[in-house]
Design brief:
- The chain is an alpha/beta fold and 409 residues long.
- It has three domains: 158 residues, HUPs (Rossmann fold, 3-Layer(aba) Sandwich); 139 residues, Argininosuccinate synthetase, chain A, domain 2 (Alpha-Beta Complex), CATH 3.90.1260; 42 residues, no CATH class.
- It is built from twelve helices and 14 strands.
- Helix 2 links the parallel strand 2 and strand 3.
- Helix 3 crosses helix 7.
Length: 409
């Protein structure tokens, strides 16, 4: 580490990363390059430029990655109907490989020796950032100040900022007491009273959605158009991936959709309680499964469902760039060739109901499925042999049991 001359820092412009910036300069006597990513967090990113310049930074990168984020990360993940531990839609997890990729791109562009991030030693993000970095540049050096320094309390951080002339924004009235992370897919809340799993979240914590009780008394109906498993239009209007997610976040939040209160198992070993708002993602998951129900073969559907928890765990644990995730993605993407058509949804007070689906690639055959006369499309007598063959092993086992009972009687 003593040989480090230039570091690329994931920089938000907030207090913690501003302290990290100064700490890197003092500890390693190195040049710092800042990288600020706009992935739809809903806050201005340009002020980070002025703050970095005020601290003597010459190379400053601020990039709008919203379209890339949804197109190349969120959409591929939703093709798999991904949920971690049955509930979490992986809003934070899926953003980290994107940030890691661009940090390494900047390393290569600037000739930096290392990257630095502000993730703590207790969380998952340190793993995600670093696994991504090592996968893309095996010999990169990584600096994680929270694992190295002695600034282990808010008081020490404030004192360091004061000693080094780092501007500190005073806590504004009404500012959230929670640790929050936001991007186009979700917003998360941790800390404060959420650290007691028995306490209910306070209503004023939520930022993106109204409570289901206060949502409109009338339904909102929308139609999503799919092409190869991805949403390409809403209500007949073509949209880019980022536009799709923004629209669904707004209409979902307005209808009280997408809140989750979860105790999850972190990769580092501890349990953590977090609350999440993912209105657009909640709608996307429901709609995509409806589209697949019409267009995917039964065994392909079941195989995807069996592999999904493994795929979700890879993303949650930071293995987006691993060969096994890429192998699974190839299979998932291949399954989406015929996932084309429209899904109609009704949104009402926190609920997402599928009210219709149609596709030119549908595998649904009314002539076979009908309860009415099917004109010979399906021979019901064939079911007798099918059932007997599938019952054969159970009948053999039952006869053996009967014999043993007779012997011991």
């Amino acid at each position: 580490m003593s040989e480090i001359k230039k570091v690329v820092l994931a920089y938000s412009g907030g207090l913690d990363t501003s302290i990290i910036l100064k700490w890197l300069q003092d500890r390693y006597h190195c040049e710092v390059v800042t990288f600020t990513a706009d992935i739809g967090q809903g806050e201005e990113v340009e002020p980070a430029r002025a703050k970095a310049q005020a601290m003597g930074i010459k190379e400053i990168f601020i990039e709008d990655l919203q379209e890339e984020f949804v197109r190349d990360y969120v959409y591929p993940m939703f093709r798999a109907n991904t949920q971690y531990e049955g509930e979490y839609l992986l809003g934070t997890s899926i953003a980290r490989p994107l940030i890691a990729k661009h940090m390494i791109d900047i390393v290569n562009q600037t000739g930096a020796d290392a990257i630095a991030h502000g993730a703590t030693g207790k969380g998952n993000d340190q793993v995600r950032f670093e696994l991504g970095a090592y996968a893309l540049k095996p010999d990169i050096k990584v600096i994680a100040p929270w694992r190295l320094w002695d600034l282990t309390s808010r008081e020490k951080l404030m004192r360091y900022a004061e000693q080094h002339g780092i501007p500190v924004e005073m806590k504004r009235q009404g500012k959230s007491p929670y640790s929050m992370d936001a991007n186009l897919l979700h917003i998360s809340y941790e800390g404060d009273n959420l650290e007691n799993p028995w306490l209910a979240p306070e209503e004023d914590m939520w930022r993106w959605s109204v409570s289901p009780q206060n949502a409109p008394d009338a339904t909102t109906d929308i139609v999503l158009s799919y092409e190869k498993g991805d949403i390409i239009a809403i209500n007949g209007q073509a949209m880019t991936p980022a536009q799709v997610l923004r629209y669904l976040n707004k209409v979902g939040g307005d209808n009280g959709i997408g809140r989750a209160d979860i105790v999850e198992n972190r990769y580092v070993g501890m349990k953590s309680r977090g609350c999440y708002e993912t209105p657009g993602g909640t709608i996307m998951l429901k709609a995509h499964r409806a589209m697949e129900s019409l267009t995917l073969d039964r065994e392909v559907t079941h195989l995807k469902d069996e592999l999904m928890p493994r795929y979700a765990k890879l993303i949650y644990n930071g293995y987006w760039w691993s060969p096994e995730r890429q192998m699974l993605q190839t299979m998932i993407d291949a399954s989406q060739t015929h996932v084309n058509g429209q899904v109609r949804l009704s949104l009402y007070k926190g609920n997402v109901a599928v009210t219709g689906r149609q596709s030119a690639d549908s595998l649904f055959d009314k002539n076979i499925a009908t309860f009415e006369e099917d004109a010979g499309a399906y021979n019901q007598f064939d079911a007798e042999g099918f059932i007997k063959l599938n019952a054969l092993r159970m009948r053999i086992a039952a006869r053996r049991s009967q014999k043993l009972m007779q012997i011991t009687a």
